[in-house]
Design brief:
heterodimer, A: 279 residues, mainly alpha, MetI-like fold, 10 helices, 78% helix, 0% strand, globular, disordered N terminus, B: 287 residues, alpha/beta, Rossmann fold, 6-stranded mixed beta sheet, 4-stranded antiparallel beta sheet, 40% helix, disordered C terminus
């Protein structure tokens, strides 16, 4: 993005030496609750595995427990097997999001700017938005030549709404004075977009993209259950068919980890694109 | 060189309004002259200023700057508003440079901007984000931004009314000094009688419903003006009278009945006739 929208100030080098002890203490305090949360989740998982392993009816699924799962996860990572499905899935999500952004941002700018357009599109868009993207599956399969294209379409149609509406919200929040001053200073439409509108809405756009990433990542897995022979959704389905429950759980872990990382990247982008002064 | 303005019989109707907001406005401004437009809220002075800026086109009549009809905004005549309206995601330098960037005048831009920031007393703040500045400092940035493109005309829409009394006086004197140094024509709108006399060569009093030019007062005092001086206060009193004459007839009658037709009555009458105008009330009381 534009350099103007970042406020990260480099600390002076001298500050690091004597303040490092204090910042270590600060880090410990910052991490203590997240670590507590992670430990809680692991404990719950371990307890669930123990219950399953000790019930004769469910004993067959004992490898969902943390021990076997983490062992299988390590196998997947060390053998390199994990990368191929990740790559396929990220490729689909990436393109789905790209199309959603290419459609959603301009659409959002127009909906935010023109009241008539906003009111005209309200009912149809809210109607379309509430249809589960997976409901489009049969139509997508008919409409697109490849499964890959169909999945990308499903992701895009799920991701386009949060981006559109977050962008529109950002545009509506633009101070009209900024535009007035801009035109007074001789801004042409390109200048207005580049120097005024884009930095003003960047934060909202990224907030929309964050929501879109969440939805896209959720839609991806069920979409990959069908047709394709690659990706994380396929890997889970495949592990189920071959009764490799430890591997199945390991892929669930992978999905969670990557989803978390994507979200963290978005949070960083939102923060960097915010123009509000940070204390 | 300052711009010469001629306002030729402007009448303006806002859509959906029965009465015209402005009627038969005629005014000529010489290059380098400073004009104050003063009047109550709703007299259309801000509308008139927007027309000078090319942000609004009159329904009848025309504004001409240096003989050319104004039909759209131009960086040759810059407007400053009550709020600084800086871009909060930019530094002081970037905000100030913007007009030059828009005009594609990037050669020597930084040097120019440095000199301007020096002039408005913000040389050490160039790389600071504008959100960390005080209200007065922000308005100085807005002033520097307006001056960056070498305008021939500066239009000010109550630009100091949100500032504290000391900062206000400072900025009024700064604008006067800079506009004289550079020979810029200035037209400003104000509620503040003292501000009008402190800055203007000519004060134009507007009446409302519909907005018309009622009176004109020439201020021949040299700059910087002594606000405690006898002539200054004479002019202030004179302007008070003009201002009083444009008010509601009932309020005027109240004035003539009163033994001392000055401050308190003026204040309360103005408060009744325009309850939404804080600054208007304050200005009249202060006078």
């Amino acid at each position: 993005m534009n350099r103007d929208v970042t406020f990260d100030m480099p600390a002076t080098p001298g500050e690091w030496g004597w303040a490092s002890l204090r910042s270590l203490n600060h880090l410990r305090r910052a991490l203590q609750y997240p670590v507590l949360g992670i430990a809680g989740l692991l404990a719950l998982w371990w307890w669930g595995g123990w219950v399953i392993a000790n019930n004769p009816d469910t004993m067959a699924f004992a490898s969902f427990a943390p021990g076997p799962t983490l062992a299988a996860f390590w196998d997947l990572v060390s053998s390199g097997q994990v990368w191929s499905p990740i790559e396929s899935s990220l490729h689909r999500v990436g393109f789905g999001l790209l199309y959603a952004i290419l459609i959603g941002v301009p659409l959002g700018v127009m909906i935010g700017y023109f009241n008539v357009l906003r009111e005209t599109t309200h009912v149809p868009f809210q109607f379309l938005r509430m249809i589960s993207p997976l409901a489009w599956m049969p139509i997508a399969v008919l409409a697109f030549a490849t499964w890959d294209a169909a999945i990308i379409f499903l992701i895009a149609i799920a991701a386009v709404w949060p981006i559109t509406y977050a962008t529109a919200h950002g545009v509506q929040r633009i101070d009209p004075m900024w535009l007035k001053v801009g035109s007074n200073l001789g801004a042409n439409p390109y200048h207005t977009l580049r120097y005024i509108v884009m930095p003003a809405i960047a934060q909202d756009v990224f907030a929309g993209i964050r929501l879109a990433v969440g939805v896209a990542w959720i839609v991806l897995v069920p979409a990959e259950y069908l047709g394709v022979t690659s990706g994380l959704g396929y890997a889970i389905n495949d592990a189920r068919d071959t009764l490799e429950y430890d591997k199945l759980a390991a892929f669930v872990l992978v999905i969670g980890l990557i989803g978390y990382m994507l979200d963290a990247i978005c949070v960083r982008l939102i923060r960097r694109s915010s123009y509000h002064a940070q204390g | 060189m300052g711009a010469a303005i001629s306002i030729d019989y402007i009448t303006h109707h806002y859509p959906k309004q029965k009465d015209p907001t402005l009627k038969d406005i005629e005014l000529t401004v010489r290059p380098g002259e400073t004009i104050a437009l003063i009047g109550q809220s709703g007299c259309g002075k801000s509308t008139l200023l927007h027309m000078l800026a090319g942000l609004l086109i009159p329904s009848e009549g025309a504004v001409r700057i240096n003989g050319h009809q104004v039909i759209k905004p131009s960086p040759r005549w810059n407007m400053m508003f009550q709020k600084p309206s800086l871009y909060p995601w930019m530094t002081v330098r970037r905000n100030t440079s913007l007009g030059l960037i828009f005009q594609g005048r990037r050669d020597g831009m930084n040097k120019r901007v440095d000199a301007l920031l020096e002039t408005v007393g913000l040389a050490d703040k160039a790389e600071v984000n504008v959100q960390s500045l005080s209200g007065g400092q922000q308005q100085r940035v807005a002033l520097a931004r307006s001056l960056a493109t070498d305008p021939e005309l500066l239009l000010l829409d109550e630009p100091f009314s949100a500032l504290d009394a000391f900062t206000k006086v400072e900025l009024q004197e700064e604008v006067s000094r800079l506009s004289q140094e550079r020979g810029i024509t200035v037209v400003f709108v104000t509620h503040d009688i003292e501000e009008a006399i402190a800055m203007a060569d000519r004060v134009v009093v507007m009446g409302s419903n519909p907005g018309t030019l009622k009176h004109e007062l020439t201020v021949e005092l040299p700059h910087p003006r002594d606000r405690a001086g006898a002539r200054f206060n004479e002019l202030k009193a004179e302007l008070m009278e003009f201002f009083g004459a444009t008010r509601h007839p009932a309020a005027r009658r109240e004035d003539t009945d009163a033994t001392a037709p000055d401050a308190p009555e003026e204040g309360s009458a103005a408060a009744e006739s325009e309850p939404d105008s804080e600054s208007g009330r304050r200005a009249i009381r202060a006078a």
